[in-house]
């Protein structure tokens, strides 16, 4: 048995911070009223929702009326793409995205293609960056939306959002960014970034699961995704999930008030891990941009081993990591992101993603730098491919 669990999969999900849980608790039983009701406990719930809306808006430089609560980041992505497609289809049916988007965007685009829309999937370079020239050249007369993620969930690369938004604004095209990985980890101002729509999710920054939000710039038309009652100003029907919305508001408030100090510490852990592994383990490759990446993201491919085997052995040592995104971890196919940046199937299968968070320490990094090289060495000793490489070196 291991002494403790070292959790290094914060890109998949985070725990709910005690301050967030404390803010949520009264709305499960004490202030349980329906926010659409006119009696006092209903008005209390309505007030709590609006206070959370203000906190989310403040965190990303938006206005409260531009924030719509959703059930998840995936719902926010679906709503952004489908809602804009439905509202602007008379103007055009062309959408631009990238090959490394989250499945919530890619699969929505595939759905829209079946509905008669044309989608351009932009390539990325070896670091996972979209070319601004490609973005500009892909725009047509009938382009209505560009959707490029803020930061990649697997390799951590941060896109040139400001510049993409400027191109979109110049061409009169709406710009959506899936910022699920970025919000709470990167300073964001939607006005400065020229963003028209932005998706976020509470459980990525120590809030509860099952709640997200979509920012929609004032003046942007968007059709409803869920029809029914008049919640969210008639745009998103469903009785509000008051406790989770309150939790989202408190979590984003906490995440943004000490972000600079937090990121400095997390980046140090990231850098020590990357530098240590690169020095200790041969035949490895860092995936994603070296500096334009999320503070806590480490994604490394190890040649001659399977990532799943590495994960299982790390789990036996008490370390929780990932071989790809949580949303596709049940698939045997290699990561579409790693293939898009030019990795072969074999090398992509040997990837490990570690994502640091608030509870990680330098001692965790030291433990990783002791255990990972040993595990990789043991796995490679069982690899005929690695044996062939060693024999060739001896010749």
From TrEMBL:
Which reactions is this enzyme annotated as catalysing? (sulfur carrier)-H + L-cysteine = (sulfur carrier)-SH + L-alanine
Task: Locate the N6-(pyridoxal phosphate)lysine modifications and list their residues.
Answer: 204
> What are the binding positions for [2Fe-2S] cluster in this chain?
327
Question: Per the UniProt record, which EC number(s) apply here?
Answer: 2.8.1.7
Q: Which GO terms describe its cellular component?
A: L-cysteine desulfurase complex
Aminotransferase class V domain sequence ranges: 6-368
Q: Does the keyword Iron apply?
A: yes
Self-association state and partner proteins as the record states: Homodimer. Forms a heterotetramer with IscU, interacts with other sulfur acceptors.
Name used for this protein in its record? Cysteine desulfurase IscS
Can you name the source organism? Ruminiclostridium sufflavum DSM 19573
Q: Which gene encodes it?
A: iscS
């Amino acid at each position: 048995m291991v002494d403790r669990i070292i959790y290094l999969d914060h890109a998949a999900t985070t725990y709910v911070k005690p301050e967030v849980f404390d803010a949520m608790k009264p709305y499960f039983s004490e202030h349980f009223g329906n926010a659409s009701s006119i009696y006092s406990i209903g008005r209390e719930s309505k007030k709590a929702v609006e206070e959370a809306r203000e906190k989310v808006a403040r965190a990303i430089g938006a206005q409260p009326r531009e924030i719509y609560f959703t059930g998840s980041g995936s719902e926010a992505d679906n709503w952004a793409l489908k809602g804009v497609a439905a509202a602007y289809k008379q103007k055009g049916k062309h959408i631009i995205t990238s090959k490394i988007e989250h499945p919530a965007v890619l699969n929505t685009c595939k759905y829209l293609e079946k509905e008669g829309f044309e989608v351009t999937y932009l390539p990325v370079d070896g670091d996972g960056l979209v070319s601004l020239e490609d973005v500009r050249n892909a725009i047509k007369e009938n382009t209505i939306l560009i959707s490029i993620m803020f930061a990649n969930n697997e390799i951590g690369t941060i896109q040139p959002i400001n510049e993409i938004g400027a191109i979109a604004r110049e061409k009169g095209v709406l710009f959506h960014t899936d910022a699920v990985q970025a919000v709470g980890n990167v300073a964001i101002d939607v006005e400065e970034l020229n963003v028209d729509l932005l998706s976020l999710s509470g459980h990525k920054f120590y809030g509860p699961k099952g709640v997200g939000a979509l920012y929609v710039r004032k003046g942007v038309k968007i059709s409803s995704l869920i029809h029914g009652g008049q919640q969210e100003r008639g745009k998103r029907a469903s009785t509000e999930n008051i406790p989770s919305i309150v939790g989202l508001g408190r979590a984003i408030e906490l995440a943004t008030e000490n972000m600079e100090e937090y990121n400095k510490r997390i980046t140090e852990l990231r850098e020590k891990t990357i530098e240590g592994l690169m020095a200790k383990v041969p035949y490895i490759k860092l995936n994603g941009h070296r500096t334009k990446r999320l503070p806590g993201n480490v994604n490394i491919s190890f040649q001659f081993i399977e990532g799943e085997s590495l994960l299982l052995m790390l789990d036996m040592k008490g370390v929780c990591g990932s071989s790809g995104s949580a949303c596709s971890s049940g698939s045997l196919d290699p990561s579409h992101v790693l293939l898009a940046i030019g990795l072969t199937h074999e090398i992509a299968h040997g990837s490990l993603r570690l994502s640091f968070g608030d509870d990680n320490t330098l001692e965790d990094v030291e433990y990783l730098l002791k255990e990972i090289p040993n595990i990789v060495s043991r796995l490679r000793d069982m690899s005929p491919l690695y044996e062939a490489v060693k024999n060739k070196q001896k010749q």
